[in-house]
Write a structure and sequence with these properties.
Blueprint lengths: L4 H4 L10 E5 L5 H10 L4 E6 L2 H13 L5 E4 L13 E7 L10 H11 E12 L16 H10 L3 E2 L9 E7 L7
Parallel strand pairs: 1-2, 1-4, 2-3, 4-5
Antiparallel strand pairs: 5-7, 6-7
């Protein structure tokens, strides 16, 4: 069983007016649900390395009468978003695809673009399942994913139910110190 976006988004607080981002948007499954939840005052950013995926997401959003910011991005580089912009970020089936030598950089970049105390829903493959999922050398173990986020100053939830082939948790960004 594969985790459904609507089910997984129950674990984060996505409300009208928020700025949310889908990192590794792919087919737009999470982006579509996010667009429904943020209302006209909110903003959804869909980021992916494949321009054709982003074009499909943009057309789908326009067809539904909604606007989505699409940004072509390689997650090994600096993210094309300003500091403290995003209230909630989705990183679904993306961490395993980031170059292992740049994963920590990507997580630090998430910490930069997420507001203090903002949430990141992390969902990824728990293993390599023959024709489903990434090749075994690309799989990032759940404990290693948690360590990446904690090293970047995030706190992490317990593991969430995410189907038989995935793991998931919520990482909460560091809160700015009070003066």
């Amino acid at each position: 069983m594969i985790a459904e976006p609507r089910e997984m988004l129950k674990y984060v607080s996505v409300m009208p007016g928020m700025r949310v981002a889908d990192f590794g948007a792919g087919s737009g499954a999470y982006t579509s649900v996010l667009l429904d939840r943020i209302g006209e005052e909110g903003r959804v950013y869909a980021l992916d390395a494949l321009p054709q995926s982003l074009e499909s997401i943009r057309r789908s959003a326009e067809g539904a009468g909604k606007q989505c910011m699409t940004l072509c991005a390689e997650f090994e580089d600096a993210l094309p978003l300003r500091d403290n912009l995003i209230d909630v970020a989705i990183v679904a089936n993306t961490l395993h695809a980031v170059d292992p030598t740049r994963r920590q950089h990507f997580v630090y970049e998430l910490g930069r673009v997420v507001v203090p105390g903002g949430q990141v829903l992390v969902l990824d493959w728990a293993g390599s399942f023959d024709s489903m999922g990434p090749p075994q050398p690309m799989v990032l173990a759940p404990a290693d994913a948690v360590r990446l986020f904690r090293a970047a100053g995030f706190s992490t939830s317990t593991m969430l139910p995410a189907g038989t082939h995935h793991y998931a948790f919520v990482a909460t960004g560091p809160v700015a110190p009070t003066p």
